[in-house]
Structure prediction request, 434 residues.
Amino acid sequence: MAANTRDIRRRIKSVKNTAQITKAMQMVAASKMRKAQQAAIASRPYAEELSRLLRPFIDMLGDEDRAPHPLMDSREVKRELVLVLSTDKGLCGALNTNLFRELSQFDPAKTDFVCVGRKGAQFLVRSKCSVIAEFDLKDNFSFHHAQTVAKFCMEEYMKGKVDRITVAYSDFVNTLTQIPSTRIVAPVHSFDLGATALDGKNDETSGAKITPPDVTEYLLEPNKDTLLDELLPHFVFFKIYHLVLESRASEHSARMVAMKNATDNAKQIIKDLTLEYNKIRQASITTEILEIATAQMVLS
Amino acid sequence: MATVRLEIITPEAVAYRDDVDMVLLPAELGEMGVYPMHVPLITKIMPGELVVTKGAEKARIAIGEGFAEITQTNIRVLADMAIEEAQIDEEAAEKAVERAQERLRQGSLGDEEVAMVNVILAKSLAQLKVKRRR
Prediction:
């Protein structure tokens, strides 16, 4: 009996510690989440504007037989590069698992993977996929980091090793919902300009975005090729950067929710254990009283 | 008098949005003054100083690399940096310039890093240029 209550007391204590840790992690995730969400949202006007800027070039494309830039040239897809944006750390619920399930649509024999985030790399190596590069997802992932990643992918594309670049990431909808998604970033097409990097999440602005610009004829300075040379890679860089921001927002949201659930569970367990403990204690007191009473009755 | 709507957008925020009389842009082929009803044009812009004229006032903004889309009624500038004169931290920019120059002098950097340091250098110099004008 005494051993049993002691066991329960010990378990209550350990669960309490766990709850404290998960609570702290929840707080950390919440503050990171706010920052990540703000960054993701703040970069949306830029992404929109960049897509708009590319539209005149795409329109001009119609009356030429040859793609003006390799990044606009859609080749037959013999080999594909998939950039997987996962997380570095776990404890974020089913976020990574869902993302990896999404990856099963790619044929491992025809796909090269590039990973951002350690979890993705671990998973892909375990499932024996060809991982050609791996990048760390640092906490202060800047545009420059994204550029390094994007440059690597684009070099593969330009060398003709791969014919398409797809990004697999967790699309941030809101704190409770993250959808594993894929998006093609190269070659650049007109059809992915409209909803680029935004997915029409804010419908009011996306409505305005779809209307074609009032002017279709632009003077281009210094000239079309130079501008395309600058604009297209920048577009791909930024798109990848934006998607990283989105998946970061998803990661921290998912982690916060997972930690909140863990804290709630721990509290429930503490409650149950406390009840159990009190019951046992009460039972032992009752037995003792009973024994005393019986002893007295026998004596009298 | 007609005005033109200027918007400066960076990845972090919409840095500037106002109706203005004239804008001086650091375009790739040299400085470019844009008045309302300008012919539609797309150009690349270099790190430097962007001057906005609105009535009698002039605002100077240090701008990073990017693109500008000009239509008759709108000027949209996409840049990786946009800091108004008052917000520029002269000391920090100076230090950044020194650090960048130092790293370039050491010469132990890869191509990537040189490119990155050069970008930082250009941006910091643009900030100093705006700040030291007075």
